[in-house]
Amino acid sequence: MASAASVFLLNVTGQIESAEFPEFDELYCKYCFVYGHDWAPTSGVEEGISQIASKNRNIKQEIVWNFPIEITFKSTNPYGWPQIVISVYGPDTFGNDVVRGYGAVHLPFTPGRHKKTIPLFVPESSSKLQKFTSWFTGRRPEFTDPKVVAQGDGREVTRVRSQGFLTLSFNVVTKDLKKLGYSNSPSEPPNPLMMSRP
Amino acid sequence: MAEVHIIGQIIGASGFPQHILFCKWGVHTGGAWKLLSGVVEGQTQVDNPQNEEMAFWSHPIDIHFATKGLQGWPKLHLQVWHQDSFGRNELYSYGFLHIPSTPGTHSLLTPTWRPLGTWQEQISQMFVGGGPQLKSPSLIYGGADRYRLQTTSMGQVHLELTIIPRNFERYGVEC
Fold it and tell me: Cβ contacts (< 8 Å) between A35 and chain B: which residues?
């Protein structure tokens, strides 16, 4: 069993907890993962689609999905560390599904429990004419592939509007990262006098 | 050789006079550093946020370096630009930070500044926008020529970066 490790494992469980969208209701979300060439999922679900959730006006204004995420990746190299890409959809005034937000975040790097709140944004029309036609036809601009929000190149041509936040929680377990020579946490507990503000 | 992974996001910016913002970024390293994979410069999306306090870019960064020494540890330099309603871009501010050397995930907030210019330039900037820009970006992350400048403070840029060094312990380097 104790052979020299050449791969490390990243096991993530968690959930898409909820979203804050002041303007919209009856939303559902999709998730998928974007990762580099050296990475491969070994078990778990790579994409999912949630129920349609609406707000409870009496209790709180959040939209709760409580949607599970369970996945394990293996890799030889942290380059291309997986990102979870979320897209949120909901009906417009005519009942057609339109996108209400895209967002992405890297899976946490250190073992333990992590909570992340990420901003969600939608692409905007680039010209006044397109703005008018999208208003007139009721079709708003979308990304043909939501995975572009996890990529850095080619972003300079996109104009977006951020509107709303999504909260995720993760439990992370790693295996053999140390054995491969990687350190993902400080070697000693950080100096309490040097703690940065949260 | 020891290796360093820098993975994370340029999250966004807050505290700027206008909120339609984007950012040009780059990573500068010394001669002993070799880029193995990833891109070291780029430009974010333009965000016109509904909540006007903060613009969000969620711009991913994933860089893999190999190095022979600690000299020239990577620095990230930033330029924040404002886009007005006519689609014209105007430089808002400069900023830089050293990539943290401690392994783990860091929430970072970097303050930014812009050159002031003469009083004539300041008045024309009040009416028509624009403003002085640096001729060479090395002034952003270098300290040698800064004393020639007069600057004023601008907003701040939010980042979350994770540092994963590899094989530093093999050379006795504690980080």
Answer: none
- B61, closest residue in chain A (CA to CA): A152
0.90 surpassed by complex ipTM: no
Q: Which of B9, B22, B58, B159 to mutate to test the interface with A (most CBs of A within 10 A)?
A: B58
Question: How many folded domains does chain A comprise?
Answer: 1
**Cα–Cα distance between A82 and A79 in angstroms, integer?**
9
Residue A91 has, within 13 A of its CA and on its CB side, a CA count of: 9
Q: Do B104 and A79 touch (CB under 8 A)?
A: no
Chain B residues within an 8 Å CB radius of A106: 7-9, 60, 162
Residues of B in contact with A198 (CB under 8 A): 107
**Contact present, A53 and A45 (Cβ < 8 Å):** no
- B58: tokens are 């969620």
Residues 106-125 of B with CB under 8 A from A: 106-107
Partnered with residue A102 across adjacent β-strands are A87, A121
| Strand blocks (E) in chain A | 8-20, 28-34, 40-44, 47-49, 63-75, 83-91, 97-106, 112-123, 159-175
**Mean pLDDT computed over every residue of chain A:** 89
Lowest mean pLDDT: which of A13-17, A44-48, A124-128, B74-78? A124-128
Q: How many residues does chain A have?
A: 198
Provide the pLDDT for residue A189. Answer: 58
In a domain, A1, yes or no: no
Domain of A174 in residue numbering reads as: 8-122+143-151+163-188
In order of their start, the domains of chain B are: 2-171 (2.60.40.150)
Instruction: Test B166 with A155 for CB contact under 8 angstroms.
Output: no
| Residue A3 resides in a domain | no
Looking at residue B9, its pLDDT comes to: 96
Could you tell me if residue A83 is inside a domain?
yes
pTM of the model: 0.88
B42 in reach of chain A (CB within 8 A): yes
